[in-house]
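INTERNAL TRANSFER SHEET
From: sequence group
To: structure group
Subject: Beta-lactamase family protein

Please process the attached sequence and return the structure record in the designated field. Keep the field labels unchanged so the import script can parse them.
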Amino acid sequence: MTKSPKTYGRWIAAVAAGAALLGVSAAAVPSARAAERPVTGTVREPIDPARLRAALGALPDGVLAGAMARVGGRDGRWTGAAGNVSADPAASFRIGSITKLFTSTLTLQLIAEGRLTMDTPVQQVLPGTLPAHWAPITIEQLLSHTSGLPRPACYEQGRSYTPAEFIRSAITECPQAGEPVTGDAITQIYMGANYHLLGMVVEKVTGRTYAEELNRRIVRPLGLRHTYLPAAGDTSMPSPALADLPPADPWAWAEGGMVSNAPDLERFLTSLLRGRLLPPAQQKLLFEMPSHAERGFSRAGVQYYKLPDGTEVWGKTGSYGGYVNGAFATRDLRRSLVYSLVPVTEDQKKIETRYFALADAAF
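Return from structure group:
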């Protein structure tokens, strides 16, 4: 398979965006685990519409074609848009790796039902999917991005993958492919293949498709009318779409293929953090950090960040199909932020400046 240098672009951009916002640690993962983080560092200021409008900026410019932000929580709600994006608050967009939060929730529900454990080896559930001589990789390691699998995953431009094909590509066809890092050398490395494997685990354990479980367990119970996983090959977008962008095949699946909108993402994230989707034993995993990860991903794959003023936020970034997104909230749910940016540059530093500005204004 021949791959151009552009082959890795989407993955590198997504990793850079997530790591930059959340400060993912590269330190070793000891066996001991940190205790659950307390509810601290909440917002102190009311919602400031003028500051939020200023953070969106005068668009389009040389960085963004358009941007949308929705701020919610106990202090009220504000929604704004600027530039070449729909002003409809319900406009849909491709959420990219925010999909991972849905996948981790499904996985934790199966653990709560006793159909998996955090220590279950993925090789036990999916025999033959990974090389037989590899050391066991657990469900927890997939959730927390401590599996040791190599990054970045590779894909062939314009090709639509099945989940199994994607895993084969990641572990056998990439120039970076090789043995997973094991033992004390494991690092917390953001890797899409972890969540492709988790999606495959969901299907194997339940006997239903990932999309069916997504709808049955999360979408319908929460009334998320604009949230779905497109079928393979479906490049369409519902109307109104946030932006007029080229079609994108949703082959990123359980790690990045979903479509949603800001109100649905706000409802999902706040329901998740409030405890509506998980029993207490699994709920606490959302906020337990591997002992090395002061900033990064929790044991359940939720991103954590402490803003410069001490405010702590939990959620997920995601980039796909021309959108750069994020959904974050304080643990006490006083404040939440969902944003979607449409960049016109590949300069990650300039894009980061924009979503940092939104986070600063929102929280």
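Handover comment: The longest strand covers residues 64-72. The CA atoms of residues 165 and 325 lie 27 Å apart.
Transfer complete.
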